[in-house]
Specification:
about 300 residues; alpha/beta; 2 domains; globular
Amino acid sequence: MQKINHDEVAVVMVTFNPKLNILEKTLPQLQRCFSLVISDNGSHNVNQIKQLLSSTRTAKLLTHSQNLGIAKAQNEALRYIFKNLKQIKYFCFLDQDSFLTESEILKLCQDLHNLMISKKAALLGPAIKVPFLGKQNVFRRQYQLVPEIISSGSVIAKQMFIKLGLFSEELFIDFVDYEWCWRARQHGYHVFVDQNVFLKHQLGWEKAEIRRGQNIIAAFRLYYVFRNCLYLMKTKQMITAEKKQWRKNLLDQAWYNLVFCPHRWQRFKMIIKGCWAGVKMVHENTNQMLTKGQISTKSMKY
């Protein structure tokens, strides 16, 4: 069995105005053990982030003058690694406020390597542990087949990006990780969770951000949630058999935000704007495909 080495693994992290006290705890171990590439989306404290990385050559900070969105920021990091770090074979994606230990990252990469051979796996992620909520997505099997996972904590082999492409930059944020999972599944690959590894996610959460057992997301995120979900639903990038469940998920999301969350009027406006933007994206995508002759008017269904 091939053993995965440290120099074959790169950790990719996107930052946007991160809490420095968290990075001070997580970055030292990551940059000591692996190649670490941070793609910063125009943070106001980017100089402080740079100082945290100044003591090692194994870390690279890519700075962007504005917020490019998580998809493009991740892709910029991947492009840098493809070009400059030829030895890298596996990528581990971490949010700025989540953490995996050295041994956990190596285990995920090793397990992914084995699952790619035996189960045609595209990516593998840890189970999630969120403060105040305990352990989430705990399964009976060690390697549980799932429809999609969040990118934080997940590991993907370089060869899968070569086969399936990078992340979809038009989504900006939200559903970026899910869309890649669905793309992999549509090409015959599988998505797994390793329940023996738990991601310490959202290290900076506070109890005030949890309501009725669910995290309260920022109001502006609802724009992207509804826009991207509707867009992926209509452009067939979402698994067809699962569209009904995602329609229900959107309704549940709207109900939760408009009944139980603060700033309800602002959340309502973001939902409406997101729905309208999703419809516009579908029409723009359709017009582009018609212009390129990729579809005919007979195949159009709304």
